[in-house]
Amino acid sequence: MNDMKILVPVILNIICCAAYCVCLNQINVCKPIAHMDVSIGILFRFSIAVLFLTLLAGMFILRLTRRKFLIALPVIMPVLLWSNHLDIFPHRAFVYMGLSIVIYGIYLFICGYLTNRYG
Fold it and tell me: Which sequence ranges are marked TM in the entry (predicted)?
């Protein structure tokens, strides 16, 4: 049972990262970038890795501490990543930031529910 406390959030982490990747691709299909470059594609994949680490840090903070305000700290990573690229694509970066925050919030809601439900 103790392994399931870690295994379920890690699987949920992978599912959330896959959903984030699908959402990024759908945004780019609906509103394509005019001058798509290889570096922008690498940036999208790097943002998935940053989101994975953000969700992992959120899981550990949720498991190891009782201070609920610390849960908001890991979301700074994707916000800083996309705020650095506001000059490249200003409106799109806000959408990507919002998407990261929404997925992080959904992930923490589900992990918190599972923690309270199953201890």
Answer: 7-27, 39-62, 69-88, 94-115
